[in-house]
Amino acid sequence: MPATKTLPQCAHDAIESAIDEAADEEPVVLWWDDGGYLRDIVRNTSHQLGCAFRAAEQTPLELRAEAPRDRTVWYVPQARSDDVDWFKDVEHTGDVIEQHIGKLAARCFENDRLQAATLRTAFEDAEVDETEGRDERDKVADILGDGLDGEGGLPDLQSLQTRIVLDGHDDPVQFVLEHGTENLPGDDDLIEIRDLLVDNGVAAVDGESDAQTIVERTRRWAVAEWLVDEGLDKSRLPREYQPESSSGFGVSRPELRSVLSKTERKQELARVYLDPDQRFWHDVLRTYDDPWELVDCPVDASLEHRLWNEWTQSFHAGDYEQCATQAEQRHERLDATYGDVPWTQLWDQAVDIATLANELETWEEGGDTGDVVELYGDVEEGTWQIDNAVFNLIVSGEPETALPEEHPATAKLEDLRSSLVESRYLEYLTDLGDLVEDQIEAGSPFVGENHAHQFFAEEQEHLQSGQSVALFIVDALRFDLAHELAESIRSELPKLEVDESKWVGTLPSDTEFGKAALTPGSKFSFNIELQDGELVPERNGRKITNHRRQTLLENDGWSYIMQDADDEVGWSNTRVAYYWNDIDETGEKELTDFEELFSDRIDAISRIITEKLRKGEWDRAYILSDHGFVSLPRHVDIDDLHPPSNAEKVTRRWVAGADLDDDAPGVLLDEDTHLGYLDDDTRISILTDPIQRFRNQGLPDARFYHGGVLPQEFVLNFVTITQE
Question: What are the chain's domains?
């Protein structure tokens, strides 16, 4: 039964009636308001009726300090007391109204005054909740005031009663689905809530009087409703759990979906509706022919477990593309429903697992012996994507450790990861190293490619054009990380054109040579030679040190800015070279969880670049790298090799000398390799096997290394950013 009037309308009727019935033509109307919740309503109504309004702030006796001359409403925000009668004259000449918000609310329901009396008793029976520090009457008064203010229409009595019983919630089904037994009333109020649930279609709770049972059956009903909405034949369910067909117009959706779309307790509810101890429809789902038909239902652990088991069976059968698609679909549904929870993380990692397995299978089956630079560095199809998948898989961690122990992934996921990252990926790296070695020894896979030491010459048209240009030179920005950085910039600055291209870095791929290559000068002026047993990079016959590199850039008109340098003036130049060294330093220092740190570093450099591009409005910007790196599995045994006795320069991944034997470990680089920068007398033996290193010092880089000749180290992604 809906209300017929608002609280202000009822207050208007009460004061108007009191004035009409008063003995005096200019009466004083006295309003006793237990609790003082009607103050604003009484004041506004008084003014509408042409009455002065005076309120007692501390004691009712204050109202007698000045005798009223015109019709006035005296307002006392407390209950009337018979102990002292200060207003006997008012009773004879004016009128007295005793109406608190509960009584006035009941008058709003003229057509159902008997049932509406529950509003009065609900207010009067409310107690002070010491733990909340707020009078329970405040809560009831807020509900009545908000519900009967006339904004948004008038409520029905049942809705208002429900809100009072359920602490402001007007939908008993959604309240139970979200809060369970928390704040459920007892005794008669619980029976009332149960009957409301039945009225809303939850037939399974009919006749029940235990709060826990009512909650369990309501939730089971809601899960069944969602399953049916996704395609489950409702005839599989007991009759009392079969949801009613929607007869209304518009789009209807399951009650539980509505709850989860609005609640701020998503993570808490994930543990309710994906709890292995709450397998709501296990008997139905364990025999369901194709559980993936119900993939978009995220609220039953039995379905979740079946999906995972079916997914792992498909994975072991080699259906990797299907596995990636299914995992992405499940991840999207769980993420949209619960956000970042272990179940969401599990399926996100499952995407990476399937992607990596598919990339590795393609590699294993392809037997590709094409040019290694093209094979690895193709922006769209290159095998750099294998490294990217491994990187993402490691960064995603171990989501199974946060899942309930009963989830089948807790027993299987680690084996899936290790079989890929610590076995098949290592085999791929070894095969790739063998391919590089074969191609170098057969001639060179580098002829006709863009070389990093030729950058300033190849891009001279743009670098010398007078346009504003920024160079972001990022140490150890491997191909896959450069691609991730490019994607981040595309997302943040969609109006810019972001292009990627492969370049061949220097060999060996150490920072010293890589940064020296990225300095101004013609492509013929860069050289690497042996000087007194040291391998030295040169431009125009002079060794390039950090100071020399800065001088070359500044002489060529560039502002030289190092990471963390406080140089706002330099950024205002039209030609800026900015150096970021965090990635290489992280790899050398953080030897266990450096992938996670790299991910943070990519986010950081992306923020810096996008900020500078927004502020600087560069015509063109480049993201360059001096070298990449190889990251090995966490559990791998490194084999030490003794360098040749005639080696002059010995590092962990390469040795150099003038008279190295052709059978030195690894692949031998000399003037016949057609790199274009090795001195005739310089011979460099570089390791290609990912689990070998020259014995030179301790083992600080058992997982992170560069300086070798795997394409992860020397095939670089240069990113070009221009204004469209």
Answer: 1-166 (no CATH), 171-245+252-263 (no CATH), 291-442 (no CATH), 467-723 (3.40.720.10)
> What is residue 591's predicted lDDT score, i.e. its pLDDT?
52
Encode burial over 20-35: b for 16+ CB neighbours within 10 A, e otherwise. Answer: eebeeeebbbbbbbbb
| C-beta of residue 35 within 8 angstroms of C-beta of residue 137 | yes
Average pLDDT over residues 640-654: 89
For residue 473, give the nearest of 526, 514, 509 by alpha carbon: 514
Query: Rounded CA gap, 13 and 42, in Å?
Result: 11
Please report which residue ranges of 519-637 form alpha helices under DSSP H: 546-555, 568-571, 582-589, 594-616
CA dist., res. 353 & res. 359, Å (int) = 10
65-99 tens-digit pLDDT: 877 778 999 999 988 877 667 788 787 788 999 99
**pLDDT for position 455:** 96
| CA angle, 126 then 128 then 130, to 5° | 145
Distance between CA atoms of 487 and 472, rounded to whole angstroms? 16
> Binning pLDDT at 50, 70 and 90, where does residue 133 land?
very low
The rounded distance, in Å, linking the Cα atoms of 359 and 421 is: 12
**Tell me, what amino acid is at 586?**
T
Tens-place pLDDT, residues 530-540: 998 899 999 99
* Model pLDDT, residue 589: 58
Supply 174's token pair. Answer: 């959604």
Structure tokens at 59: 């004691």
Query: Contact 164/148 with Cβ under 8 angstroms?
Result: no
User: pLDDT: is 158 or 352 the higher one?
Assistant: 352
3-state secondary structure string across 46-100: HHHCCCEEEECCCCHHHHHCCCCCCCEEEEECCCCCCCCCCCHHHHHHCEEEECC
Q: Are strands 667-669 and 526-531 parallel, antiparallel or unpaired?
A: unpaired
pLDDT in tens, 368-417: 677 899 999 999 999 999 999 998 888 888 999 999 999 999 999 999 99
User: 508: cis peptide before it, omega within 30°?
Assistant: yes
Both tokens of 275, joined, read 């709890």
Spatial distance between the Cα atoms of 102 and 122, rounded to a whole number of angstroms: 8
Contact 373/505 with Cβ under 8 angstroms? no
536 half-sphere exposure, CB direction, 13 A CA radius: 15
CB 433 within 8 A of CB 667: no
Residue 530 CB contacts under 8 Å (≥ 6 apart), including other chains: 536, 648, 649, 656, 657, 658, 679, 681, 682
Q: Per DSSP, what are the bridge partners of residue 630?
A: 705
Query: What is the token pair recorded at 286?
Result: 């364990």
Quote the pLDDT of residue 588: 56
pLDDT for the residue numbered 368: 66
The pLDDT tens digits for 201-223 are 999 999 999 999 999 999 999 99
Please state, as a whole number, how many other Cβ atoms lie within 10 Å of the Cβ of residue 281.
Answer: 22
Cα(339)–Cα(464) distance, rounded to whole angstroms? 49
DSSP assigned state of 603: H
Mean of the per-residue pLDDT values of the chain: 89
Does the CA dihedral 34-38-44-48 come out positive or negative? negative
Does the pLDDT at position 247 exceed 60?
A: no
- Given this model, what pLDDT does residue 66 score? 77
Q: How far apart are CA 160 and CA 156, in angstroms?
A: 7
